[in-house]
Amino acid sequence: MGLFSSSAALNSFDELFVEQLQDLYDAEQRLTKALPKMAAAAHNPALKSAFEEHLKQTENHVRRLEQVFQGLGKSAQTKTCEAMKGLVEEGSEVISGKGDPDVKDAALIAAAQRVEHYEIAGYGTVRTFAQRLGKSEAVRLLQETLNEEAETDKKLTALAEKAINPKAAASV
Ligand SMILES: [Fe+2]
């Protein structure tokens, strides 16, 4: 999110709301390209399928944002999400890096949970903005995605604690 890096001025709460949606729209599209690579790199089958499942959800998150733009009478436009670019780049470093497969799985989860927390922050904000602006359909759609991001985060925590970290810790 580069709030003041673009030429667009933020003169109203509505404009800020749309700008935040554009940032998320860019972030989600970047993630649809990154998740197949994360899934391919995952060694643990449960982690691989968690990434694959989240890819399907993420494709739906892109569609939901398009529905939100449509409901607002706005065209779906992206605004470069520098944060997601950086988070994806960190994930790429893990993917291309060498090392023990179990430790690399733990590193993939570390990267993926940073992504989820970023999205949870973003969706929490736009959901709350939509509430303030009285956009009830947008609230409903954004809350659905927010719930899925939170579920994914919990799932990754459980996978890390129960399966991935114990294996990673056992490797020497
Ligand atoms: Fe998402």
Structure, described:
It is a single chain. The chain starts with 12 loop residues before the first helix and ends with a helix. 81% of the residues lie in helices and 0% in strands. It is mainly alpha-helical. It has 5 helices and no strands. The radius of gyration is 17 Å and the shape is elongated. Helix 4 runs antiparallel to helix 5 (136-170). It binds fe (ii) ion. Fe (ii) ion (FE2) binds next to helix 2 and helix 5.
Low-confidence stretches: none
Q: Helices and strands: which structural class?
A: mainly alpha
Can you list the ligands bound to this structure? fe (ii) ion
Rg over CA atoms, rounded to whole Å, is: 17 Å
The tally of helices reads 5
Q: What profile does the largest beta sheet have?
A: none
Number of strands: 0
Helix and strand pattern: HHHHH
Strand content: under 5%
Shape: elongated
Oligomer: single chain
Distance between the termini: 39 Å
Instruction: State the helicity in percent bands.
Output: over 70%
Average pLDDT value? 95
